[in-house]
Amino acid sequence: MSVEKVETIETSRFGKVSVQEEDTISLPYGVLGFSDHKKFCLIDSGDDTLILWLQALNDPNLVFPVLEPKIFKSDYKIKLSPGDLRDLGLNEPKNIAVFSILTIPTDVTQMTANLKAPIIVNRENQIAKQVVLQENEYSVQYEMFNALKAHLLTIRSQQQNRTALKEVVAESIRIKDLPTAQA
Amino acid sequence: MLVLTRKLGESIAVDDHIKIVVVQIKGKQVRLGIQAPKETKIHREEVYQSIKQQNQEAAKKSADIAHVSKALKES
Protein backbone atom coordinates (compact mmCIF):
# COMPACT_ATOMS: atom_id res chain seq x y z
CA MET A 1 0.00 0.00 0.00
CA SER A 2 1.45 3.35 -1.00
CA VAL A 3 1.36 6.10 1.56
CA GLU A 4 0.58 9.43 -0.03
CA LYS A 5 2.04 12.31 1.86
CA VAL A 6 -0.55 15.01 1.69
CA GLU A 7 -0.74 17.97 4.00
CA THR A 8 -3.89 20.00 4.39
CA ILE A 9 -3.17 23.66 4.97
CA GLU A 10 -5.34 26.62 5.82
CA THR A 11 -5.26 29.62 3.54
CA SER A 12 -7.17 32.86 3.96
CA ARG A 13 -7.59 33.21 0.20
CA PHE A 14 -8.46 29.68 -0.92
CA GLY A 15 -9.74 28.00 2.24
CA LYS A 16 -8.40 24.50 2.92
CA VAL A 17 -5.87 23.28 0.35
CA SER A 18 -4.30 19.82 0.04
CA VAL A 19 -0.60 19.91 -0.76
CA GLN A 20 1.29 16.82 -1.89
CA GLU A 21 4.73 16.57 -0.35
CA GLU A 22 6.35 16.59 -3.80
CA ASP A 23 4.64 19.89 -4.63
CA THR A 24 6.09 21.66 -1.62
CA ILE A 25 8.57 24.35 -2.60
CA SER A 26 11.43 25.03 -0.21
CA LEU A 27 12.87 28.52 0.06
CA PRO A 28 15.79 27.97 2.46
CA TYR A 29 16.40 31.74 2.68
CA GLY A 30 12.73 32.66 2.53
CA VAL A 31 11.38 35.58 0.55
CA LEU A 32 13.37 38.75 1.36
CA GLY A 33 11.81 40.30 4.46
CA PHE A 34 9.95 37.07 5.30
CA SER A 35 12.75 34.82 6.49
CA ASP A 36 10.50 32.87 8.91
CA HIS A 37 8.65 31.20 6.07
CA LYS A 38 10.58 28.49 4.23
CA LYS A 39 7.88 26.18 2.86
CA PHE A 40 5.48 27.22 0.14
CA CYS A 41 3.26 25.79 -2.53
CA LEU A 42 2.04 27.19 -5.84
CA ILE A 43 -1.71 27.48 -6.18
CA ASP A 44 -3.49 27.86 -9.48
CA SER A 45 -6.80 29.45 -8.60
CA GLY A 46 -8.28 28.18 -11.85
CA ASP A 47 -8.96 31.52 -13.46
CA ASP A 48 -7.69 32.55 -16.88
CA THR A 49 -5.24 35.25 -15.78
CA LEU A 50 -2.14 32.95 -15.68
CA ILE A 51 -1.41 34.41 -12.24
CA LEU A 52 -0.35 31.81 -9.67
CA TRP A 53 -0.19 32.17 -5.90
CA LEU A 54 2.87 31.37 -3.83
CA GLN A 55 1.27 30.38 -0.55
CA ALA A 56 3.19 29.91 2.72
CA LEU A 57 2.36 26.56 4.32
CA ASN A 58 2.67 27.85 7.88
CA ASP A 59 0.76 31.11 7.54
CA PRO A 60 -2.72 31.25 5.98
CA ASN A 61 -2.36 34.99 5.38
CA LEU A 62 1.01 34.98 3.60
CA VAL A 63 0.57 34.65 -0.14
CA PHE A 64 2.31 36.28 -3.09
CA PRO A 65 0.77 36.54 -6.55
CA VAL A 66 3.39 35.43 -9.08
CA LEU A 67 3.61 35.29 -12.85
CA GLU A 68 6.19 34.06 -15.34
CA PRO A 69 7.85 37.27 -16.59
CA LYS A 70 8.27 36.01 -20.17
CA ILE A 71 4.47 36.33 -20.43
CA PHE A 72 4.60 40.13 -20.20
CA LYS A 73 8.24 40.82 -21.05
CA SER A 74 9.49 38.53 -23.80
CA ASP A 75 13.07 39.81 -23.71
CA TYR A 76 13.50 39.22 -19.98
CA LYS A 77 16.78 37.50 -19.22
CA ILE A 78 18.37 36.44 -15.97
CA LYS A 79 21.94 35.59 -15.14
CA LEU A 80 22.38 33.34 -12.14
CA SER A 81 25.64 33.64 -10.20
CA PRO A 82 27.60 30.54 -9.14
CA GLY A 83 26.33 31.27 -5.62
CA ASP A 84 22.70 31.25 -6.79
CA LEU A 85 23.23 27.98 -8.66
CA ARG A 86 24.83 26.45 -5.57
CA ASP A 87 21.92 27.56 -3.35
CA LEU A 88 19.46 26.02 -5.81
CA GLY A 89 21.45 22.79 -6.05
CA LEU A 90 22.15 23.31 -9.75
CA ASN A 91 25.25 22.83 -11.88
CA GLU A 92 23.78 24.82 -14.73
CA PRO A 93 20.64 26.91 -15.16
CA LYS A 94 18.54 24.06 -16.55
CA ASN A 95 15.03 22.89 -15.70
CA ILE A 96 14.16 26.01 -13.75
CA ALA A 97 11.00 28.04 -13.43
CA VAL A 98 11.16 31.81 -13.15
CA PHE A 99 8.47 33.86 -11.44
CA SER A 100 8.07 37.56 -10.75
CA ILE A 101 6.24 38.58 -7.61
CA LEU A 102 3.31 40.83 -8.48
CA THR A 103 1.86 43.69 -6.50
CA ILE A 104 -1.83 43.97 -7.29
CA PRO A 105 -3.46 47.09 -5.83
CA THR A 106 -7.18 47.80 -5.78
CA ASP A 107 -6.78 49.63 -9.06
CA VAL A 108 -5.77 46.51 -10.96
CA THR A 109 -4.45 48.49 -13.93
CA GLN A 110 -1.63 49.68 -11.66
CA MET A 111 -0.29 46.17 -11.04
CA THR A 112 3.48 45.81 -11.08
CA ALA A 113 6.00 42.99 -11.24
CA ASN A 114 9.32 42.76 -9.47
CA LEU A 115 11.82 42.05 -12.26
CA LYS A 116 14.84 42.84 -10.09
CA ALA A 117 14.35 39.94 -7.68
CA PRO A 118 12.63 36.96 -9.32
CA ILE A 119 11.83 33.68 -7.58
CA ILE A 120 13.78 30.89 -9.25
CA VAL A 121 12.58 27.31 -8.71
CA ASN A 122 14.71 24.26 -9.43
CA ARG A 123 12.06 21.91 -10.82
CA GLU A 124 14.17 18.82 -10.03
CA ASN A 125 14.26 19.28 -6.28
CA GLN A 126 11.66 22.05 -5.72
CA ILE A 127 14.23 24.30 -4.06
CA ALA A 128 13.71 27.98 -4.74
CA LYS A 129 15.38 31.29 -4.05
CA GLN A 130 14.53 34.93 -4.46
CA VAL A 131 17.52 36.03 -6.50
CA VAL A 132 18.65 39.66 -6.59
CA LEU A 133 19.89 40.26 -10.12
CA GLN A 134 22.98 42.36 -10.62
CA GLU A 135 21.53 43.88 -13.81
CA ASN A 136 20.64 47.49 -13.13
CA GLU A 137 17.99 47.96 -15.77
CA TYR A 138 15.39 45.84 -13.97
CA SER A 139 12.86 47.55 -11.73
CA VAL A 140 11.16 46.23 -8.59
CA GLN A 141 7.98 47.96 -9.82
CA TYR A 142 7.62 47.16 -13.49
CA GLU A 143 4.19 48.11 -14.82
CA MET A 144 2.82 45.23 -16.86
CA PHE A 145 -0.98 45.35 -16.82
CA ASN A 146 -1.31 46.25 -20.51
CA ALA A 147 1.28 43.69 -21.65
CA LEU A 148 -0.46 40.91 -19.70
CA LYS A 149 -3.82 41.97 -21.06
CA ALA A 150 -2.50 41.90 -24.64
CA HIS A 151 -0.99 38.44 -24.09
CA LEU A 152 -4.26 37.07 -22.71
CA LEU A 153 -6.14 38.53 -25.67
CA THR A 154 -3.76 36.74 -28.08
CA ILE A 155 -4.21 33.43 -26.24
CA ARG A 156 -8.00 33.78 -26.31
CA SER A 157 -8.13 34.47 -30.03
CA GLN A 158 -5.78 31.53 -30.71
CA GLN A 159 -8.00 29.27 -28.64
CA GLN A 160 -11.07 30.45 -30.51
CA ASN A 161 -9.39 29.69 -33.84
CA ARG A 162 -8.38 26.24 -32.63
CA THR A 163 -11.90 25.44 -31.40
CA ALA A 164 -13.33 26.56 -34.72
CA LEU A 165 -10.83 24.35 -36.56
CA LYS A 166 -11.67 21.36 -34.36
CA GLU A 167 -15.38 21.71 -35.12
CA VAL A 168 -14.74 21.72 -38.86
CA VAL A 169 -12.53 18.62 -38.59
CA ALA A 170 -15.12 16.76 -36.52
CA GLU A 171 -17.83 17.59 -39.01
CA SER A 172 -15.83 16.48 -42.05
CA ILE A 173 -15.18 13.08 -40.46
CA ARG A 174 -18.87 12.58 -39.85
CA ILE A 175 -19.72 13.30 -43.51
CA LYS A 176 -16.93 11.00 -44.73
CA ASP A 177 -18.27 8.20 -42.52
CA LEU A 178 -21.79 8.46 -43.89
CA PRO A 179 -21.49 6.33 -47.08
CA THR A 180 -19.87 3.45 -45.15
CA ALA A 181 -22.72 3.52 -42.68
CA GLN A 182 -25.25 3.35 -45.50
CA ALA A 183 -23.48 0.48 -47.35
CA MET B 1 30.47 44.14 13.73
CA LEU B 2 34.13 44.60 13.01
CA VAL B 3 35.05 48.28 12.81
CA LEU B 4 38.33 49.36 11.21
CA THR B 5 39.81 52.83 10.64
CA ARG B 6 41.27 53.47 7.20
CA LYS B 7 42.90 56.48 5.57
CA LEU B 8 42.37 57.69 2.02
CA GLY B 9 43.87 55.19 -0.38
CA GLU B 10 44.05 52.41 2.18
CA SER B 11 42.05 49.26 1.78
CA ILE B 12 40.51 46.25 3.46
CA ALA B 13 40.81 42.68 2.24
CA VAL B 14 37.78 40.44 2.68
CA ASP B 15 38.51 36.78 2.17
CA ASP B 16 41.30 36.18 -0.33
CA HIS B 17 39.78 37.80 -3.36
CA ILE B 18 37.83 40.88 -2.29
CA LYS B 19 39.43 44.27 -1.78
CA ILE B 20 37.66 47.44 -0.68
CA VAL B 21 39.55 50.72 -1.17
CA VAL B 22 38.75 54.17 0.18
CA VAL B 23 38.91 56.17 -3.06
CA GLN B 24 37.70 59.57 -1.92
CA ILE B 25 36.53 61.31 1.23
CA LYS B 26 34.48 64.47 0.80
CA GLY B 27 32.61 65.87 3.79
CA LYS B 28 30.09 63.21 4.82
CA GLN B 29 30.59 61.17 1.67
CA VAL B 30 33.01 58.32 1.21
CA ARG B 31 33.71 56.76 -2.19
CA LEU B 32 34.66 53.15 -2.05
CA GLY B 33 36.22 51.03 -4.76
CA ILE B 34 35.47 47.33 -4.67
CA GLN B 35 37.52 44.65 -6.36
CA ALA B 36 35.85 41.26 -6.30
CA PRO B 37 35.49 38.13 -8.41
CA LYS B 38 32.94 38.57 -11.19
CA GLU B 39 30.33 36.33 -9.56
CA THR B 40 30.28 38.36 -6.32
CA LYS B 41 27.04 40.26 -5.94
CA ILE B 42 27.49 43.83 -4.85
CA HIS B 43 24.48 46.06 -4.19
CA ARG B 44 23.80 49.21 -2.27
CA GLU B 45 21.84 48.22 0.82
CA GLU B 46 18.91 50.29 -0.51
CA VAL B 47 18.39 47.69 -3.26
CA TYR B 48 17.64 45.04 -0.62
CA GLN B 49 15.47 47.51 1.29
CA SER B 50 13.42 48.29 -1.81
CA ILE B 51 12.96 44.59 -2.58
CA LYS B 52 11.88 43.86 1.00
CA GLN B 53 9.46 46.79 0.86
CA GLN B 54 8.05 45.60 -2.47
CA ASN B 55 7.63 42.06 -1.07
CA GLN B 56 5.70 43.56 1.86
CA GLU B 57 3.45 45.43 -0.59
CA ALA B 58 2.92 42.28 -2.69
CA ALA B 59 1.94 40.29 0.41
CA LYS B 60 -0.77 42.78 1.37
CA LYS B 61 -4.23 41.66 0.45
CA SER B 62 -4.31 41.63 -3.34
CA ALA B 63 -7.35 42.62 -5.31
CA ASP B 64 -9.92 39.85 -5.68
CA ILE B 65 -8.98 37.50 -8.52
CA ALA B 66 -12.41 37.76 -10.15
CA HIS B 67 -11.92 41.51 -10.16
CA VAL B 68 -8.42 41.07 -11.68
CA SER B 69 -9.72 38.67 -14.31
CA LYS B 70 -12.50 41.08 -15.27
CA ALA B 71 -10.14 44.06 -15.54
CA LEU B 72 -7.84 42.06 -17.81
CA LYS B 73 -10.71 41.25 -20.14
CA GLU B 74 -12.27 44.70 -20.42
CA SER B 75 -11.59 46.39 -23.71
Structure described in brief:
With 183 residues, chain A is of the alpha+beta class. Chain A contains 2 helices and 11 strands.
Q: What attributes characterize this protein structure?
A:
heterodimer; A: 9-stranded antiparallel β-sheet; 2 helices; 11 strands; 25% helix; disordered C terminus; B: 75 residues; alpha+beta; 3-stranded antiparallel β-sheet; 27% strand
Folded structure, characterized:
- The complex is a heterodimer of chains A (183) and B (75).
- With 183 residues, chain A is an alpha+beta fold.
- Helix content of chain A is 25%, strand content 27%.
- Chain A is built from two helices and eleven strands; from the N terminus they run ββββββαβββββα.
- In chain A, a hairpin with an 8-residue loop joins strand 7 and strand 8.
- The C terminus of chain A is likely disordered.
- In chain B, 32% of the residues lie in helices and 27% in strands.
- Chain B starts with 10 loop residues before the first strand and ends with a helix.
- The radius of gyration of chain B is 22 Å and the shape is elongated.
- Chain B has 75 residues and is an alpha+beta fold.
- Chain B has a three-stranded antiparallel sheet with strand order 1-2-3, with no helix packed on it.
- The interface between A and B is medium-sized, with 37 and 27 residues.
